[in-house]
Amino acid sequence: MTTTATTTLSELKKKVESRQAQIGIVGMGYVGLPLALLFSGERFAVTGFDIEERKVSTLNEGGSYIVRILPNAIQQAQKSGFRATSDYSEIARMDAIIICVPTPLNEYHEPDLSYVTGTVESIAPHLHDGQLVVLESTTYPGTTEEIVVPLIEKGNRHGLKVARDRDETGIHVAFSPEREDPGNETVARHDIPKVVGGCGSSAAELAAAYYGAIFRRVIPVSSPSVAEMTKLLENIYRCVNIALVNELKQLCMRMGIDIHEVIDAAKTKPFGFQAFYPGPGLGGHCIPIDPFYLSWKARQFDFRTRFIELAGEVNINMPYFVIDQLADGLNRHRKAINGSKILVLGLAYKRDIDDLRESPSLTIIELLREKGATVSYNDPYFPTVGQGRHYALNMTNTPLDNLAQYDAVMIVTDHSSYDYQAIVEQAQLVVDTRNATKGIDSPKIVRC
Known about the structure:
The protein is an alpha/beta fold and 448 residues long. The chain folds into three domains: 9-222, 3-Layer(aba) Sandwich (Rossmann fold), CATH 3.40.50.720; 237-316, N-(1-d-carboxylethyl)-l-norvaline Dehydrogenase, domain 2; 317-448, NAD(P)-binding Rossmann-like Domain (Rossmann fold, 3-Layer(aba) Sandwich). 37% of the residues lie in helices and 14% in strands. The chain has 14 helices and 15 strands. It has helices at residues 9-17, 32-41, 53-60, 71-78, 114-123, 143-155, 201-212, 224-255, 259-266, 290-299, 306-316, 318-332, 360-370, 420-426; strands spanning 22-26, 45-49, 83-85, 96-99, 132-135, 172-175, 194-198, 218-221, 341-345, 374-378, 384-387, 392-396, 408-411, 430-432, 445-447. An eight-stranded mixed sheet has the order 3-2-1-4-5-6-7-8, with helices on both faces. Helix 8 (224-255) packs across helix 10 and helix 12 packs across helix 13. It is elongated, with a radius of gyration of 24 Å.
């Protein structure tokens, strides 16, 4: 049911409270699909929009393509009216549209907003008065007001504008950063506070009403830019601290000190310290990307984010450091990377998830291939891996048998299903980038 120009803000909020509001979520990926299930769990009728017909058909058949989301969760949502479609004309039936599409970097490490702009251009003609449009995709401050709003107003076939005040008719627009943490089983999604910044008081109030229906706490901020910057701060905070421990790891290795023992000791301090851990590089959609989004935007203000850029450089270089440690380990066996058989354990960017986005494993495999190694991989979540935005691996999962045939086994993702004791016993050389072999004493292990 569409709203009319006379629909008041209080009437729109009542539709939310009565669960009569129709929710449309664009992008049925790692952010959009869990959000759709949250709304469905609160008895909202949700329509998932996606341009990938495979995802649409899988969802409509009651299936799932994300390991941590079981098919029965999709089937339960269908009882509340959940369905998927690739037909954007159905946007006209929605009361709220939430955009959860990728925001990657291009080859020059600059923001690629093509998914956002393409989505807004597709939905703009179908928007009507009283609808709420929320962008959740991680982006730089100013995106909502400078890009999304003008595209909506330019493309709307009814000539509608974005409403700014409580008594103003039009389309309501807000930004609310996603706070997904794949694999986190300790914090329920509805317990994660939701930050909301609206283009005007009416949008902020309406967005808070929608999110307040599924999250226990909503944090309103004064503008979309504040909400956009909040997301960047959260992830850059992690990026900078991970870069710090990655750099300290390299120093500790030269000094003969175990960085993990240092971290374990430091985290006993009950104040002023939060533990971060080193690794082979950063993965996931946000943490490796967000520093570059902010650095790019900062240059428009004649400002150089040197500290943040340095952290990004440290983390980007970690796969190269890991390769160097592999070379040193092989050298002890009088072998070179060129011509060696290497097994990479784990493709996902972190343990126990089926997410390849920006995974350092992909970079490590490509670097090994460039150096002449014969590379295989094992990951229980990926029977095959083909071509993505930044990789063209075209590989098939290798069983964990006859590990002695490999010149080295590299632990890049520490999935909990691996028997690390058995891996060390069977392999000729183990390069451990995740401290997965902690407690195992063997001259075969190179920890880095």
